[in-house]
Amino acid sequence: MALKFDEKGLIPAIVQDEKSGEILMFAWMNKESVGLTLEQKQAWFWSRSRQELWHKGATSGNTLDVREVRYDCDADVLLVKVHANGPACHTGERSCFYRELSPEDV
Description:
Layout: E1 11-17, E2 23-29, H1 31-40, E3 44-47, E4 52-55, E5 64-71, E6 78-84
Parallel strand pairs: 1-6
Antiparallel strand pairs: 1-2, 3-4, 5-6
């Protein structure tokens, strides 16, 4: 089955710790970043704000070693299982999902 990219050529990617199952981050991928990720076994994404490929951890050293990439039943979402070499979040938190939403936040 071929992956289904959106009208901008992107597909959502959920990044999960291979051992604990913790969700570490969410990012977008394009066809090139998916190819690089599969080829290099390192996580590559597409930065929508910078409009460029992004090798996760290239600057910080907090790379993501890719163990496997799965896709959902509709082939429109990726699950990237990784071993994280340091925090996944740019804030220094292990996961980007470290805050709980409360009614006051809405």
